Amino acid sequence: MPDDANSSPPESGVHFAYLLDGQGGGRPLDAAAARAWTPDQGVLWILLDRSNPGAESWLRDVARLPELVREGLLAEDTRPRAVNTPEGTLAILRGVNCNPGAEPDDMVSIRLWLDPTRVISLRGRRVFAIDDLVNNLGRGVGPRSPGSILALLADALSDRMRDVVGNQEELVDGIEDDLIGGSAKELRLRLAVPRRQTMTIRRYLSPQRDMLSRLTTETSTLFGERDRVRLREVADELTRQVEELDLLRERSTMIQEQILAQASEQMNRTMYILSLVAAIFLPLGLITGLLGINVGGLPGQRDPHAFWFVCGALGVLAVVQWMIFKKHRLL
C-alpha cells in the first residue's frame, strides 16, 4: 500500500494516521479521527507534511508539543540526532532520495517525536522507507510500538543506503578500468559525480550511526530489547557503509591524482617534442636569417646554384643535429 493511500485533506497537514494494534498491524484513521484520538485507544502513528502550514498548527494545537520540540521538527536544515526528554524522544533521520529524477545525495529528512502512546513523524518529500512500514502494517508484520517504528524505519533507510553505496562503488570501478587510454577531461567529469555524492552521503551517515548507537545504550522505556538489538544491527551496518564511503573517497583521490599525473605527463611529452623541434630549427633559422638580410657582400648572390647549395647545407645540418640528439638519447 503506498504511503499516500490514506491521505487526509491537504489543508489538515495530515498525510496519514494509523492506530497500531500491538501485533504488527494497524487501522487507518482520517484526520478527524486522529484529532479525536485518546491514549486509551492504542498507539497512534501519524505522518504530517512538513511543507503544509497545517502541520505547525497540528503540532501546536492538537499534539500540544513543547515549543522546542516543534522547532526541532519543523527546522529547515537538520542533521541526524536524538534528544531524550522526560516526555519522549525527538529523533531526526536522513535517507537517500529515491524519488524519480532525484540525485541520491539529495538526502530526505524524517523527523519523529516518540512518546509511550504516539509517534508524530514529519517529512517534506516522499520517503519510500515509510512506504515499506505502511505496507508491512497492511500485512500484519509492521511496527508494534513507538520504539519499533524508529528501529524499523532506520533499518529500511539503511537498506536503501546500501544499494546507493554499491552503485558508487560500481561508478568508481568503471572509472578505474578506463584510466588507461581514457580522456583526462572526461574522466574528471565522471569522477566528480561519485566524489560529490560520497561526501554528501557520508556527512549525514556518520552522525546517524552515532545517534543510533547512543539510543541502544539509553535507559528510555520507549525501546524494548528487540528494538535495541535492531538498532544495534543498523548501527553496525551504517559503520560498514561509512567505512566503504571512506574507502571510496580515498580511491577517488588516488584516481584524481593519477588523472592529473597522466595529464601532466602528456603535457611534458608535448613540451619536450616542441623543445626538440625548436632546437633543430633554431640554427637553421639563424642561418636563413643571416642570408636574408638586405646588405651587400652576401656570398652566392650571382651564383645560380647557391640556393640549392644552401638548402643542401641546411639539410645536412638538420641530419647532423638529429644524429647528435639520437646519440645522447634525446629522441
Folded structure, characterized:
By secondary structure, this protein is of the alpha+beta class. The protein has a single domain, classed as Beta Polymerase, domain 2 (2-Layer Sandwich), CATH 3.30.460. The chain has eight helices and seven strands, in the order E-E-H-E-H-H-E-E-E-E-H-H-H-H-H. The chain has a seven-stranded mixed β-sheet with strand order 2-1-3-7-6-5-4, with helices on both faces. Helix 4 packs across helix 5, helix 5 packs antiparallel against helix 6 and helix 5 runs parallel beside helix 7. The radius of gyration is 35 Å and the shape is rod-shaped.
Helices and strands, with pairings:
Blueprint: E1 14-20, E2 26-29, H1 31-35, E3 43-49, H2 53-62, H3 67-74, E4 81-84, E5 89-95, E6 108-115, E7 118-123, H4 128-139, H5 146-177, H6 184-217, H7 225-291, H8 306-327
Parallel strand pairs: 3-7
Antiparallel strand pairs: 1-2, 1-3, 4-5, 5-6, 6-7
Helix pairs in contact: 4-5, 5-6, 5-7, 6-7, 7-8
Write a concise synopsis of the structure shown:
The protein has 331 residues and is an alpha+beta fold. 57% of the residues lie in helices and 13% in strands. The relative contact order is 0.09.
